[in-house]
Amino acid sequence: MNNIDVKFNLNGEPVTAVVPVTWTLLRTLREYFELTGAKEGCGVGECGACTVLIDGESVNACLYPVPEIEGKNVQTIEGLAHPDGTLDPIQQAFIENNGVQCGYCTSGMIMSAKALLEKNPQPAESDIRNAISGNICRCTGYVQIVESIAMAANMQEEK
Amino acid sequence: MTKHRYVGQNYPRTHETEKVTGKAVYIDDLKLPGMLYGKILYSSYANAKIKRIDTSRAKELPGVRAVLTGEDIPEVRVGFIKDQTVLKKGRVRQFRDEVAAVAAITPDIAQAALDLIEVEYEELPGLFDPYEALQKDAPLVHEIDARGRPMRSNILPLPWQFSAGDIEKARQESAFTVKDRVSTTWVNQCCMGPSGCVAEFDTHNNLTFYSQTNVVFGAKQRIADYFAKIGLGGKKIRVRNTVVGGSFGTKLDTDIYEFICIQLALKTRKPVKILFTREEEFKALPPRQPAVFDIEQGCDESGRLTFRHVEAVLDNGAYTSWGATTPSVMMMPISSLYRVPNVFFKATCVYTNNIYAQAMRGYGNPQATFAVETSMDRLAEAAGIDPAEFRYINRNQSNEQTPMNLKITTCGLAECIQEVKKKIAWDQKRGKQNGRGVGMASLIHVAGGARVYKSDGHGIRIKVDDEGHVDVISGGTDQGQGSFTVLAQIIAEALGFRPEDISFNIADTALALWDAGTHASRHTFIAGNAALKACQKVRRQIMEMAAKQMPKLIQMTIKRQSRKDPDFQPPDIDFSLLSDPNNLDIQERRIFLKSDPDNPYCSMDASTVLRQGLHVGTGESQTIMAEVFYDPPTEMLDRQFKGNYSMTYAFGTTGVEVEVDKQTGEVSILNMVAAHDVGKAINPTLIKGQIYGAVYTGSGYALTEEIKLQKGKVMNPNFRDYKILTAKDDIPIEAVIVELGDADGPYGAKGIGEPGLVPTAPAIANAIYDAIGVRITELPITPEKVLDAIKTKEGDAWCE
Lengths: 159, 800
Hints:
heterodimer; A: 159 residues; alpha+beta; Ubiquitin-like (UB roll); DNA polymerase, domain 1; B: Aldehyde Oxidoreductase, domain 4; seven-stranded mixed beta sheet
């Protein structure tokens, strides 16, 4: 199989991946970099469990061809907390407000929320619901996820 | 009332920080050295003879380490009534039948190998309707039963029949009766984390099995039974969990893919992982058991229920998992939701060539409650009584016994109905028939364990080390509900420690004492009670150690201070008081004198005492540890299916306001109130999480979710065609917590895992009836069905 070299920024660090050209970004993250926070819940872009940020936009990594990532900035759930372990306000809010249950959708959910809050620091509830409409959750009924994201927005505001 | 420090608080899920940082290891993420990847080839037909399987090309593919068919492994029957084998030989009876399996060095190679396996079938006509399968001349799905005796029909040998009182007499004496057929369909549990497992044998053929089961000891037992039949009897089996991405019933039974994984590992002598794709989740996992109910009820002039007569037919599919046992739970609402003296219930499970079903959140209760609560609304109307009032008249009450011999100790149903009426503005909004309407439905569910096995117990071990860290070893699991946040609160409260001092080692049969399983909404109640008993012992041990060590430690402190400061005035301390453990107390890990809690000399962190008293030399060393097995004094159902199988029961009511678009048939939920009698909320935020999630899934069950089967084939195996609700569906839910306290529950708590889902669908259906006067008795209530019903009701008027 043909391998390619791709260079990009991963969670703030310049990296090179040597992977088969047919791989997706999700597979590259999970298998090459062993960053397993992004999950393959469906593999066809319907559930959002694989959501990562590419240049600040939330993207389904399971649909993203790895050659396309050249030169871009990728942020995954692993790059969200401060290196000293301090959680991002979104992560903190999910823990405090039961925004996480089984946790399988959580990485993607948090990354979608991150993309939203970067652009819209004080979103309305409908903005939040729109932003996570591509992220399916079976446990929570979304109520406490939506509340957690609103809580995170307020925490960021207070900072 | 006692003031609690942690119980009743919204303690955050700090024990699960890994889940928000991407570090939690799910089965997807688990990788062992040398691990191979297994894939399964399923049948191409719903019913066929296998004429020939050729695996030679698959075996030759580089990277393939094993290819197995039914010819390669012992033909051992598995499953609840042992009606299937692991890999099917000679005959397939459903599309999900496993005919071959491959292990390879990568998942891609395993998949490519599957494509190289040639199977030649001879298709047979299939049975896809349980009523057809019940016909006398219907072909048999199984020619012989588990014991090799010929089958005479497609009816499973499970005699689900319950009766109490005299139905005929009650029917004659009733002022009003109604009779309906109500049906529910297959829905997929849709765990976000796909199913999977890893099997690894050691040199001596002992197995370590990483799974997602919520019943680790049940899985161990089933594998042990299997081992006994394949020549591995007596080998050690260790079942342990990774982090689990949802369960909702799918992980209750040991599935065929798990036995296949074990066979591949045995064959290759390497660890093997099988991980499902989403398509497999839809096609090859047993969904919720569908059922058709013929329900008849009656009441007297004053609206009191006189009888309830229910006959159900369950499409079992081709084989049997726990779906066939859901009638044991259906019996509960049918016999015991509302006071009804005369009850008959019969369920017939029928083999077809559809995919087989099993459990999903509620375990038969959502199906049966849809029937009961649809009929309740119909009967209320027949009797000319407001449906809320009708339910109130017939409500269950504390301290009574139902016809099934369930002992209702505490019951908050009256409170739940009243709360819902108030919050949904029932009296103002009902009966307008203007496209908007309100409806309600209630539930009963087990909330203090469920004795489905001989033991409904939970063993727990709690040990405390010299740092004051508490390690809890429990055979329970967490599939997302936060079982161990709640347990941390209970243990911290009972032990006088802090939740952050407590760590959990869960779901590992090698470490834990036996547990019946984290199912049936039982964990908080059963594990909580076990923990309370263990904490009593541990606390006593710590207090005894403190009584022995604290006087010495305090004297040492005084001596040290006197040495440093010659003017130091030693405090006046009554050491005899300190030497009696009964005079000591502990809170947030600080041990102190009850009579003088603020004295700084007589107060110290538990770790100081523990370091002084634990491993301190020959003859002196001690351990602080307790293990307790709690098994509630409940009964298994007897031959008449009567018995008090839970210590307590949960009650709740859901109220809904809907708007129906009469042009499109679209139903919008404007407001939803779910009131639940939870005994005592150990963690209100987590309880609300259970209610919200269950109500949302219940709303999908009501309106959108359905596995579409065409001649046994799943036609919509993806999230595009199988519609589960998203954040944009935006259903406003209010969760109302009713706390009456239950004397048997830990700090008064009852279970709440499943109840929220149960009454959701009938509440929505009843609200639709109130809005537009049409009653949909078949789930899901799609716009097409609503439009059809409107057309039927309004006839030609609709077109104008």
